[in-house]
């Protein structure tokens, strides 16, 4: 059976991890607020870990959904981060919305451990997460994105490979168009 670590049970992560448990996957969760992990386990089953490293121990996939660059670095490279136990060949999928540069930085650390990395931010909001209808933009090796897609499909309606690591996080260029007085008239 595929073993999954899910780190970060916020507004998005809580229901995403729930879809994996409902699909019959072996899910171990970690959240900084232990009560949130306990509530998740009461609702979905699974296991609660005492640290990100403990959650990732023996996991085939480590999925992360945290708030920002610093939070992501801490759960990956911190003293109790997933790199302390991520097994060779495992796939770390980061669903956080962070900078492309931190994705590339962490992908290097993960590769040094013999594991794989995909940045995969989500779009669709809380309702999309609850309904399993998220859109995921992935950056990484095509075969790693394909492997991640086998898990992601449990909570997403669309998965798009955007190119190498970091490209999942990249925002399209926004072009501001000048507004003439004529366009400002209404009716």
Short description:
35% of the residues lie in helices and 21% in strands. With 187 residues, the protein is an alpha/beta fold.
Q: Can you offer a commentary on this structure?
A:
- This protein is of the alpha/beta class and 187 residues long.
- It has a single domain, classed as 3-Layer(aba) Sandwich (Rossmann fold).
- The strands form 2 sheets. It has a 6-stranded parallel sheet, with helices on both faces.
- α2 links the parallel β2 and β3.
- The chain is globular, with a radius of gyration of 18 Å.
Q: How far do the termini sit from each other?
A: 61 Å
Number of domains: 1
The structural class is alpha/beta
Number of DSSP helical runs? 7
Q: How many beta-strand elements?
A: 9
What is the topological layout?
Blueprint: E1 3-7, H1 13-22, E2 26-30, H2 34-44, E3 47-48, H3 52-56, E4 61-64, H4 69-77, E5 91-94, H5 100-112, E6 116-119, E7 122-123, H6 125-131, E8 134-139, H7 142-152, E9 156-163
Parallel strand pairs: 1-2, 1-4, 2-3, 4-5, 5-6, 8-9
Antiparallel strand pairs: 7-8
Helix pairs in contact: 1-6
């Amino acid at each position: 059976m595929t073993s999954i670590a899910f780190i970060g049970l916020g507004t998005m992560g809580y229901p995403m991890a729930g879809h994996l448990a409902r699909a019959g996957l072996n899910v171990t969760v970690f959240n900084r607020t232990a009560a949130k992990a306990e509530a998740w386990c009461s609702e979905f089953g699974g296991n609660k870990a005492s640290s990100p490293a403990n959650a990732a121990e023996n996991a085939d996939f480590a999925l992360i959904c945290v708030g920002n660059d610093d939070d992501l670095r801490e759960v990956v490279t911190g003293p109790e981060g997933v790199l302390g136990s991520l097994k060779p060949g495992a796939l770390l999928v980061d669903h956080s919305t962070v900078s492309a540069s931190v994705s590339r930085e962490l992908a290097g650390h993960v590769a040094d451990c013999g594991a794989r990395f995909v940045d995969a931010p989500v779009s669709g909001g809380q309702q999309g997460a609850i309904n399993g209808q998220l859109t995921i933009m992935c950056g990484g090796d095509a075969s790693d994105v394909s492997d991640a897609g086998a898990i992601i499909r449990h909570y997403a309606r669309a998965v798009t490979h955007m190119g190498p690591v970091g490209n999942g996080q990249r925002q399209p260029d926004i072009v501001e168009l000048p507004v003439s007085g004529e366009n400002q008239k209404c009716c």
